[in-house]
Amino acid sequence: MDKLEPYIKKVDDFIAQYPSLTFYEKLKELETKTGQPKALFFVVGVIVLFGLVFAIGGIKLFSDLVGFIYPAYMSFKALEGGKVADGDATQWMTYWIVFCFLTLVESTFPFIVTHVKFYYLIKCGIVIYLFHPKTVGAEVIYSSVVRPHLLPLICGSTSTVKPVEGDKEPEAKKDE
Hints:
Helix content: over 70%
Number of helices: 8
Radius of gyration: 22 Å
Transmembrane segments: 40-73, 93-113
Protein name: TB2/DP1, HVA22 family protein
Largest sheet: none
Shape: elongated
Number of strands: 0
Keywords: Membrane, Transmembrane, Transmembrane helix
Subcellular location: Membrane
Family: Belongs to the DP1 family.
Order of helices and strands: HHHHHHHH
């Protein structure tokens, strides 16, 4: 049990850092009633949750959730003006464009899914590369692959898209 202490401490720190997400109070109650560490219940809960995801939708559902949950959360924070830098809104918009492009390619060419071994695990790795803050892969893929092909279709050149004349910033509605 002593060898597990550092790991239990890390899980406890994570649970304490995100109390509403990890049901911290319920875990404390279980720890008090049973004498077992909160970390044990949390890890078992995560394993059961992963088991349910795989039982319901398999690896495809898992890879879709990897590509959706964290990016959707960060996009929501960017939209709501939370503790997200201004550049993050652009990062998440770029992520969603690239993610949709990847999903479109996947559904248009289904033979990729059937012929590439471990496709969904590879997709998980690609998606994590796209949204991870250290790699910001979505910006790399967007600027090198998507933008050069999409921009000429949209505006007929490789220049930047210009706003339509007469468009102006939407005014915020005032509460009456």
